[in-house]
Amino acid sequence: MTGKPGLFISFEGGEGSGKSTQIRCLEKWFRGSGHDVVVTREPGGSAGAEEIRNLLLTGDPGRWDAVTEAFLMFASRRDHVERTIRPALADGKVVLCDRFADSSVAYQGYGHGLGADYIRNLWALAIGDFKPDLTLVFDLAIETGLERAGERFANVSAAEDRFERMGTDFHQRLRDGFREIAASEPVRCRVIDAAGEIEVVSQRVIKAVKDSLARQGR
Ligand code: TYD
Q1: With b meaning 16 or more CB within 10 Å and e meaning fewer, what string describes 35-67?
Q2: Structural domain range at position 93
Q3: The model's pTM
């Protein structure tokens, strides 16, 4: 828990796991019950962090080595936390964030082999013990995820596909990594089965949120 009046929920998972759609569904649900909601994303979410995002997501897959990439992620994250997330929480808002520091543990730690401990040290250096109140980990077979992500890129002509173009082994390490993260922090993290219709997955999300809030006494 952040110990602040607001509520901070992060959405995690591999490529094409449907996080973005589910964020919009949960945003609607919170707004419907009268909450002020801020939807944000990483890398990015503040002016400076969006500039760093551009460095991170465009160009050749080998553009950055793993360490540089990890530092850029945490530089952007610090800016995002200080300028966007903390102020919103202090105002009592619900903050829904598309990816947060667990993505660095999964992608740079497990995916690129820096190791989870290395990333958790960087996490502590950059933002101390700041973390989400609840983290939803969207879990999906990698073939299904990459298929969905492929369709998205065919439809939305985005050039931000540096990570999608990494190999299948990388995506398997990611999935295993996210599952290990969730298992190591079972109170903060909930694994969501991301297979199935949007509405079905959304009901799973809402149930997980209600359960978690009740468990945290909120
Ligand atoms: P984005 O287009 O937002 O993709 P997605 O819909 O999958 O979230 O791109 C974010 C990419 O950055 C994604 O491939 C995961 C990667 N990433 C990291 O490697 N480390 C991180 O700490 C974060 C936040 C993202």
Answers
A1: eebbbbbbbbbbebbeebbebbbeeeeeebeee
A2: 7-216
A3: 0.92
